[in-house]
Design a protein that fits this description.
- The complex is a heterodimer.
- By secondary structure, chain A is mainly α.
- Chain A contains eleven helices and no strands.
- In chain A, α3 packs across α7 (157-182), α7 (157-182) packs across α9 and α9 (199-228) runs antiparallel to α11 (258-293).
- Chain B has helices spanning 2-19, 36-41, 53-86, 90-101, 108-113, 116-119, 124-132, 146-171, 174-182, 187-198, 200-216, 219-224, 232-241, 245-267; strands spanning 23-24, 29-30.
- The two termini of chain B are 20 Å apart.
- Classes of the chains: A mainly alpha, B mainly alpha.
- At the A-B interface, α1, α3, α4, α5 and α7 of A face α1, α3, α4, α5 and α6 of B.
Chain lengths: 294, 276
């Protein structure tokens, strides 16, 4: 026995379906087109099906070494992920107590989230360029000519770009931690303490298992946001580029379906990471439930 | 945490401000204190007559912001409203909500170039239009135009509207809606007088996100506008590529002030922390 749907339900449902199509349709088109036959072009119709353009991609597109850009982005993404998780959890814990300067830090975090990326990027680029100038001066004064000649720049994947990504991923991580702890029941911890657990044991055996599924989510945010990040990285990189930046450059120069193949590959990585995160998260949640039941 | 933000957020911002007062020549920055960069930015703005480049760019960027804001708000509100009040089972609700947010974790550039085979001269949309006889020749303004830029913005960033609005809607006490219905309000009246005011916070948070993103954007406008449409972000990017850092910094400071003013006007302080 179903009660009648509210007026406008079907209208809204249609709108929603159209929206989902709007979201996913173009992505689907890309994936389909990346299997274009060797004769095929950038648009429909499909001229046969093949892995030709993936092959082309593996050989490299022009001067761009896709493989190593992919490697750099993976490495950076994983580093950002680990740092985001660790720092967010620590900060989340710190914020549960009255933290002096807490509201200032919170304000800064939110500001970092909504600050136009180009400004952050420009600032970080400037910071490291000025650092370069400083280091070169020091080396000159100390007479370390050899080192001076070899010195390139402090800008790089694991210095400035890493920092740029963290200004983007950490706010998300911290906001998620707030959301978790707002709903967290401190009675569990109190119980652990009453039973004589040290603060570390309380965290390790009580708090951590409870928040673990959400922490996995923070990790996923960290990786995927870093994996696709362009705007903040753009001015904060040295000589080498991350994958999305290469991709952005390629949009104007490459006119074959190879670029769709590259798109498909990066999308697959994103989806694999999301899948892993969801899987791990539900696994942790289930294990927790099983433990509580036993 | 504090260190990270100090190193990579606060210090860089301070440096941008500092460098915006520096002088520069072709290949390096010269420390100093000058308003030259700011004067250069507004070069010709006070002489009257035609609008100077800076004002024009701000106007066009603002125009994009308003259009995108309005469209994302419309889409975001409708989608959230459907999810929050018309989907009954909470399981389905979660699944549909996640469906809306997944693209957020995939690459923006990919989602932009995904429009190319659809909107291009020989793209799907044109094919269909020609076949239907709606137009004789393929339409040119679909891609690399203001239209495609706005479309891509809405496509990319309506998530930023949906999430906070949905969040506020889910907090609305359902008994209020029943009360409204019992007092004889139509669905439309309930929507307008009860739901809309109650998700004000979500709307404002979403608006802040969308507007700040569009104001500072240079990637979307670059890719979808075929590198032809100006934006503030693009000006800054071009200037840094010519190593005119102080000039770029001055532009960044002005952009920052404009954005802050918009945010201030929007909020008058919503307590984001309480909303999570």
């Amino acid at each position: 026995m179903k009660e009648k749907r509210a007026p406008g339900f079907w209208l809204l449902a249609t709108f929603f379906a159209a929206y989902v199509l709007f979201l996913y349709g173009p992505m689907l088109v890309i994936v389909v087109l990346s299997f274009q036959g060797p004769e095929g072009g950038l648009t429909f119709p499909m001229r046969g099906w093949s892995l030709h353009w993936f092959q082309k991609l593996a050989d490299g597109l022009g001067s761009v070494d896709i493989g190593s850009a992919l490697g750099r982005s993976l490495g950076l993404g994983l580093t950002v992920m680990v740092l985001t998780v660790v720092l967010s959890v620590l900060a989340g814990l710190a914020f549960r107590k009255k933290l002096s300067g807490g509201s200032v830090l919170f304000f800064v975090v939110v500001a970092s989230l909504i600050m136009p990326s180009i400004i952050v990027s420009l600032g970080i680029g400037l910071e490291f360029r000025l650092l370069d100038t400083g280091i070169k001066k020091v080396l000159e004064v100390w007479g370390l000519q050899g080192m001076l000649d070899n010195y390139g720049t402090a800008l790089g994947i694991y210095t400035s770009a890493l920092g740029a990504h963290l200004t983007w991923t950490l706010p998300f991580g911290l906001l998620i931690m707030f959301a978790i702890f707002n709903r967290f029941n401190p009675a569990y911890e109190d119980a652990a303490r009453d039973l004589g657990a040290t603060p570390w044991q309380g965290f390790r055996h009580v708090v951590l298992p409870l928040i673990a599924p959400s922490v996995v989510g923070i990790g996923m945010f960290g990786f995927t946001l870093s994996w696709d990040e362009i705007a903040r990285t753009s001015q904060a990189l040295g000589d080498v580029n991350t994958l999305p930046l290469e991709l952005q450059g390629l949009t104007t120069t490459v006119t074959t379906p190879s670029i769709y193949a590259l798109g498909t590959v990066t999308m697959v990585v994103s989806f694999v990471v999301m899948g892993l995160a969801v899987g791990l998260s539900s696994l942790l949640a289930r294990r927790q439930k099983a433990q509580r039941a036993s | 945490m504090t260190t990270v933000f100090a190193l990579f957020f606060l210090i860089p911002l301070a440096l941008v401000l500092m460098v915006s007062f520096w002088d520069y020549n072709q290949y390096e920055m010269l420390p100093g204190f000058t308003f030259k960069n700011y004067i250069d930015v507004f070069d010709g703005c006070l002489s009257g007559g035609d609008l100077c480049v800076t004002f024009k760019t701000y106007l066009s960027t603002l125009k994009f912001s308003v259009m995108v804001w309005f469209l994302t708000l419309l889409v975001g509100f409708t989608v959230s409203y459907f999810l929050a009040f018309h989907v009954r089972s909470s399981g389905v609700q979660v699944v549909l909500f996640v469906l809306c947010t997944i693209p957020f974790w995939t690459s923006n550039v990919i989602r932009m170039i995904a429009w190319v085979p659809l909107l291009g001269r020989n793209g799907l949309v044109n094919d269909v239009l020609v076949k239907l006889g709606a137009v004789d020749q393929p339409v040119e303004w679909l891609l690399f135009s203001s239209f495609s830029v706005v479309l891509a913005f809405v496509h990319l960033f309506s998530t930023f509207m949906i999430v906070p609005i949905f969040n506020s809607m889910m907090r609305i006490d359902r008994s209020l809606l029943e009360a409204a219905a019992d007092s004889g309000a139509t669905a439309w009246q309930t929507l307008w007088n009860v739901i809309l005011p109650l998700c004000r916070t979500g709307i404002i948070i979403g608006s802040i996100f969308v507007i700040t993103i569009v104001m500072g954007d240079f990637v979307t406008i670059g890719v979808m506008g075929g590198q032809q449409i100006a934006s503030i972000g693009k000006i800054i990017q071009v200037q840094t590529s010519y190593l005119q850092f102080p000039l770029a910094a001055a532009n960044a400071v002005i952009l920052l002030l404009v954005v802050l003013m918009i945010i201030w006007a929007l909020t008058r302080m919503v307590d984001i922390r309480k909303e999570l």
